[in-house]
Structures are given as structure tokens and as C-alpha cells.
Amino acid sequence: MARNEVGAAHDAEIKAGKQSAVSWAKRVPMALAALVVTASQTAAQEAADAARGAKLAGSVCATCHAIHAGEMRSPDPVAPAFSDVAQWPGMTDRALRVWLQTSHPTMPNFMLKPRDRDDLAAYILSLRKGGSAL
Ligand code: HEC
Questions:
Q1: CA of 97 to the centre of ligand 1 (A)
Q2: How far is the CA of 107 from the centre of ligand 1 (A)?
Q3: Average pLDDT over residues 65-69
Q4: What is the pLDDT of residues 30-59, one digit of tens each?
């Protein structure tokens, strides 16, 4: 197709699409507004999850792991401190959840619900750089 033919076809498309372009112009801001609401809800949920994860860690993991920010010595010397785990390169939210899904070596196999894993991972990662989401 020659250059001006492409241009003409494009013009025709614009004319034909004018009506829908107008309604899209109305719809797009609404769709964006919905996205913003979803995003802020997700952020609020993440903060809450880390807090719940901290409670879970205190009741399930603290017998072996140091679970608090800046705490580097675990009750079980073989178990890494959560502050330390959070700094490991490649220790992402996903990597943590996968680890928590597979059986823990040298550790009783506990049944963690998916939500528990998400919350624990959110908590552990909140300890990055010595900080805490709490
Ligand atoms: C009975 C003791 C014990 C309990 C309870 C325990 N852990 Fe562990 N955990 C260990 C030991 C020991 C290791 C080191 C295992 C190894 O390196 O092979 C470990 C390793 C880990 C690691 C490092 C993973 C990696 O990639 O090497 C994470 C993360 C972890 N535990 C999270 C948790 C969480 C979250 C809980 C609570 C839900 C928990 N642990 C409860 C003993 C325990």
C-alpha cells in the first residue's frame, strides 16, 4: 500500500470511528477511576496483610526464627532471621510464597493457607533494609 493510500484509509477509519471515539473518551476516565480505586484498595490490603503476617509469625515461626526487624539471632541458630531473609538477593514475594508452600526442611510441616503465606511473605519483605511496614 502506498503512503497516501494508508493515510486515506486512516482518515476513513477516523471518520467511521468518530462516534465510538466520543463514547470512549467518556468511558476511559471512568475506567481509570475504577483502576485507581482498585489500586488504593490493594495497597490498604497489603499493609493489613503484613500486620496479620507479623502475628502469624509470632505464633508459628518465632520458636525457631528471629522474626523482628533488626533481630539477627534466631532461637534456632540454623534458621535464618527474617530480617536477614528479607535482604537476600532474589528473595521476592513469589519466592517466599513458593518456599512456604513446599515443605520446610528440618521443620514440622505446617499447613499454611494461601492467605497465610501471602501475609507472611508481606511481613517478611516489610523487614527489608531494617524497616518494617508495621
Ligand atoms: C521448627 C523450627 C522452625 C519453624 C517453626 C519455622 N522455621 Fe523456617 N526455617 C527453619 C530452619 C532450620 C531453616 C533453615 C533450613 C535450611 O536452610 O535448610 C528455615 C528456613 C526458613 C526460610 C528460608 C528459606 C530459604 O530459601 O532458605 C524461610 C523464609 C522460613 N524458614 C520461613 C518460615 C516461616 C514463615 C515460618 C512460620 C510460618 C517458619 N519458617 C517456621 C526452622 C523453622
A1: 12
A2: 7
A3: 95
A4: 555 555 555 555 554 444 489 999 999 999
User: Rounded to the nearest 5 degrees, what angle is found at the Cα of 126, between the Cα atoms of 108 and 62?
Assistant: 30
CATH code (residue 35):
1.10.760.10
CA distance 93 to 119: 10
Q: 125: phi > 0 → left, psi -120 to 50 → alpha, else beta; which?
A: alpha
Q: Is the CB of 100 within 6 Å of ligand 1?
A: yes
Domain of residue 69: give its range.
3-130
Nearest CA to ligand 1 atom 12: 79
Domain total in the chain: 1
pTM of the shown model? 0.69
Residue with the nearest Cα to atom 2 of ligand 1? 64
62 lines ligand 1 (CB under 6 A): no
